[in-house]
C-alpha cells in the first residue's frame, strides 16, 4: 500500500519538508536545502503566472514565502488574493498541492524573516526598492548591468529590510496529498477540504 497520511495535511507537509538529519550533516554549510514551491497566481485579467518560491515556514495556518513589491507576484496577489502551490519530492514519491487565500503579514514579521535570508537575496531586495516605480510595468526591461550595479550599491544596507520587502502566507482551504505506488499498487491521492477549524478528508483517484 502507498504511504498513509494523517488527518492534518499541513502537519504532513511540514513533516515531508523537514530534511533528514543526514542531509544537513553532510551539507557544506550545514544548512538544510530550501523547500521549493511552484506558486501559481492570476491577476485581475485572469492571465496565469507561475514561478518557484522558497517556503520558509509551514505551520497550522499555512505556508510562508516572501516577495518584493512591486513584482508580478505581489501585483497578482493584490488584485486576486488567491493562489495554488505545488511541492514535489520526486525521490520520496510525494507531492502536495495547496490552494487558498494569500494574506500579507505585518512589517515586524517580515523584518524578522528578512534577516534569515541569504545575503544575495537581501541585496536583491534593495535593488527592487531602489528601482521602485521603474518596475510598475511587469514587463519593463531591466538590463542585467543595472541589476548588478544595484547589487553593489546596496552593500551596507542589507542588514535592514527595505519597506518594499514583504511576507505572504498561503492559507489553504484545499490540499491534495499524492503518494507514489508501485507496479501492482496504484498511487494514492487524498483530498482535504477545510471546514472551519477542521479538515474533511476525501479519497480520490490518483
UniProtKB/TrEMBL annotation:
Key words, A-Z: Flavoprotein, FMN, Oxidoreductase
Domain Pyridoxamine 5'-phosphate oxidase N-terminal intervals: 35-132
Cofactor: FMN
InterPro entries cross-referenced by the UniProt entry: Pyridox_Oxase, Pyridox_Oxase_N, Split_barrel_FMN-bd
SUPFAM superfamilies, A to Z: FMN-binding split barrel
GO BP annotations, alphabetical order: pyridoxine biosynthetic process
Keyword Ribosomal protein: no
Entry's Gene Ontology molecular function annotations: FMN binding; pyridoxamine phosphate oxidase activity
Signal peptide residues on this chain, from the entry's feature table: none
One Pfam family of this chain: PNPOx_N
Record's protein name: Pyridoxamine 5'-phosphate oxidase N-terminal domain-containing protein
Organism name: Litorihabitans aurantiacus
Taxonomic lineage: Bacteria, Bacillati, Actinomycetota, Actinomycetes, Micrococcales
Amino acid at each position: 500500500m502507498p504511504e498513509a497520511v494523517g488527518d492534518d495535511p499541513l502537519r504532513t507537509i511540514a513533516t515531508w519538508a523537514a530534511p533528514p538529519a543526514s542531509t544537513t550533516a553532510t551539507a557544506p554549510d550545514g544548512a538544510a536545502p530550501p523547500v521549493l514551491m511552484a506558486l501559481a497566481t492570476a491577476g485581475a485579467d485572469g492571465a496565469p503566472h507561475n514561478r518557484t518560491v522558497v517556503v520558509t515556514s509551514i505551520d497550522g495556518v499555512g505556508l510562508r514565502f516572501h516577495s518584493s513589491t512591486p513584482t508580478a507576484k505581489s501585483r497578482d496577489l493584490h488584485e486576486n488574493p488567491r493562489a495554488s502551490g505545488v511541492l514535489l519530492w520526486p525521490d520520496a514519491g510525494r507531492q502536495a498541492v495547496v490552494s487558498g487565500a494569500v494574506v500579507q503579514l505585518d512589517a515586524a514579521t517580515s523584518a524578522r524573516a528578512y534577516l534569515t535570508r541569504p545575503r544575495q537575496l537581501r541585496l536583491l531586495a534593495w535593488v527592487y526598492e531602489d528601482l521602485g516605480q521603474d518596475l510598475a510595468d511587469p514587463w519593463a526591461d531591466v538590463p542585467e548591468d543595472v541589476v548588478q550595479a544595484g547589487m553593489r550599491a546596496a552593500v551596507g544596507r542589507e542588514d535592514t529590510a527595505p519597506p518594499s520587502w514583504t511576507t505572504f502566507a498561503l492559507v489553504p482551504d484545499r490540499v491534495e496529498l499524492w503518494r507514489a505506488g508501485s507496479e501492482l499498487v496504484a498511487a494514492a491521492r487524498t483530498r482535504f477540504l477545510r471546514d472551519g477549524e477542521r479538515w474533511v478528508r476525501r479519497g480520490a483517484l490518483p
